[in-house]
Amino acid sequence: MTKQLICLSCPVGCHLEAEQDEKGAWRITGNKCPRGVVYAQNELTDPRRIVTAVVRSDSESMPFIPVRTDQPLPRRLASKLLNELYEMNVKTPVKCGETLIRDFDGTGINVIFSCNSNE
């Protein structure tokens, strides 16, 4: 099996090719630095993303407040987190960096507010 990836570790954006052998090990080519290999291995075995969203608030001037994860979340949990966030209605005021959800789903990853509320 062969997969094509573009490395996001630096601005170069190397085009990587990952080939899996019969034992399941990945051979990565196309990288211009060692970070490309690490990026590809992580992306193929445990892809993670910073999740950004908005939550409803009780504020008339700011009815939605932006939030994000403080670390990359396993991609398989992103929908679960988004569903939980979209059901929430938070009380203002909130401060940038304040924790909304601590240790989401036992991952050790928190959801924090991305800005202050006006009220």
Could you explain the architecture of this structure?
The protein is built from two helices and ten strands. The chain is of the alpha+beta class and 119 residues long. Strand 5 and strand 6 form a beta hairpin.
What would you say about this model in short?
Helices cover about 20% and strands about 35% of the residues.
SSE map:
Layout: E1 2-6, E2 15-20, E3 26-29, H1 34-45, E4 48-49, E5 52-57, E6 64-69, E7 73-74, H2 78-87, E8 89-90, E9 99-101, E10 111-113
Parallel strand pairs: 5-8
Antiparallel strand pairs: 1-2, 2-3, 4-7, 5-6, 6-10, 9-10
Number-wise, the strands total 10
Spell the H/E element sequence. EEEHEEEEHEEE
* Oligomer kind: single chain
CATH superfamily of the largest domain: CPE0013-like
Number of domains: 2
CATH architecture title of the largest domain: Roll
Number of helices: 2
Q: How big a fraction of the residues is strand?
A: 25-35%
Structural class by sheet pairing and helices: alpha+beta
Terminus-to-terminus distance: 54 Å
Question: Any key phrases for this structure?
Answer:
119 residues, alpha+beta, CPE0013-like fold, 2 domains, five-stranded mixed beta sheet
